[in-house]
Amino acid sequence: MFAFGLTALFAFQSAAAIEEDDYSATFSSCLDESKGTTKDMLDCISAETKLQDMRLNEAYQNTMAAFSETQMGKLKETQRLWIKYRDANCSLYANATGGTIDALNTASCLLDMTKARADELERFTEQDPSL
Fold first, then answer.
1. Which of 55, 61, 77, 101 has the most C-beta neighbours closer than 10 Å?
2. 48 with 24: CB under 8 angstroms?
3. With contact defined as beta carbons under 8 Å apart, do 122 and 59 qualify?
4. Listed residue (112, 96, 100) closest to 8, CA to CA
5. How far is CA 92 from CA 5, 85, 127, in A?
6. CA distance 112 to 118
7. pTM of this prediction?
8. Is the Cβ–Cβ distance between 115 and 45 less than 8 Å?
9. % of the chain exceeding 90 in pLDDT
10. For 36-72, b where at least 16 C-beta lie within 10 A, e where not — what string?
11. Where is the Lysozyme inhibitor LprI-like N-terminal domain (predicted)?
């Protein structure tokens, strides 16, 4: 019973940390409504990851359009490496404890890294339109 309580506490803390990081209002309300239920939280994280992935793809396309041919090649290669890194990095969480928190931590890692990369790529086109 104690282990379950700790898992629920960590899951709730993970969800609270995610909320503070500038995600969609829908995500925040979804997490509030989940009441710490793992399945519902995973559904919220999955939906937000899809939104952030769409942002990432749009930012990637916009950045590619703004870059020179040389920069485009570098960005393409970097993006491929970043995807491999993200997936490898987040897979570390998959069986870290053997509990349900692993699924939440893995999903949260994918969400956090996808959002961060979308933010990063958006900054390329925001900084200097003549890239």
1. 101
2. yes
3. yes
4. 100
5. 23, 11, 34
6. 10
7. 0.80
8. no
9. 70
10. eebeebbebbeebbebbbebbeebbeebbebbeeeee
11. 34-121
Task: Read off the tokens for 13.
Answer: 């803390």
Question: What are φ and ψ of residue 31, in 5° steps?
Answer: -65, -40
CA distances from 111 to 4, 43, 79, 97 (A): 24, 12, 16, 20
Contact 42, 107 (CB under 8 A): yes
Ordered structural domains, the chain, with CATH: 2-127 (1.20.1270.180)
* Mean pLDDT within 22-51: 94
24/116 Cα distance (integer angstroms): 14
Contact 131, 125 (CB under 8 A): yes
pLDDT at 16 over 50: no
Nearest to 116 by CA among 30, 55, 35: 55
Structure tokens that stand for 95 in this block? 């069986």
Backbone phi, then psi, for 127, in 5-degree steps?
-70, -50
